[in-house]
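User: Run a structure prediction on this.
Assistant: Running it now.
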Amino acid sequence: MTDALPAEELWRGKPVPPPDSWPGARVFDRSPLCRQADFETGWFAWWAESLGERLRYHRKLWEFAFIAQALHERGLLRLGARGLGFGVGQEPLPAWFAARGCRVTASDQDVAAAEQAGWTRSDQHSAGLEALQRPHLCPPETLFRSVVFRPADMTAIPPDLTGFDFCWSACALEHLGSIAAGLDFIEASLETLRPGGVAVHTTEFNLTSDDDTVDHQGTVLFRARDLHALADRLTAAGHRVAPLDLTPGDAPLDRHLDLPPYRPEPHLKLALEGHETTSVGIIVTRGG
């Protein structure tokens, strides 16, 4: 891994959308890391355009595309499907899902907790449906008819949130105060689903070490051993975890380490609290 910026011809103005862009059918049968190769596929270009995002090498865009693609190929982005988003901030997914006929409950911290944590100052918090409007993705009347917003503490999910076809979160669970709290949240999120429902979550992954990491801070970093232990725990409880694929990739942008203050692009791997990190996606199907 190097902090030397790759040659501009490798990333500026790229990736170029393939002429045959479409959502994939069997892309994510595993729970993967963010890798450069995904950005250069037809399915990724399709999702970037559909979500109203500029195609670029940025891991946040990968998280949105990963969540949407994983749900799409499992047949869950359909008319009448019920979805629950955690820590949605101001992301485009609730509007896009609603435009496809899903009935969405979008949740985030209550305003007081978000202000204390600093999320309101950085425009990364949603206090209601107004912040989730994306008229270019979903007509306002459809959004207000199909999306419900409510505050929800991810460490104490309201017990009435049940029976959903799918749930998701995009890099929110690493902010719950500890590695244990983040893992507990993933397990608890399955209780909001019907049997056979699917949870798709992204979070921070420690590429540097399977021992030394960041815990009990505002942002924690999950290690391979944490995720393997979670997979074992969920499997023992009767759930199906898409096998972990924690290979980091070896393309030029996979080897580039972005240093603070972070660049708008390319931004796949980054230095965080002295560790090399990236995004990891986790897919779990609730057992019967």
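The helical segments are 36-39, 42-50, 59-72, 93-99, 111-117, 140-146, 179-189, 224-236.
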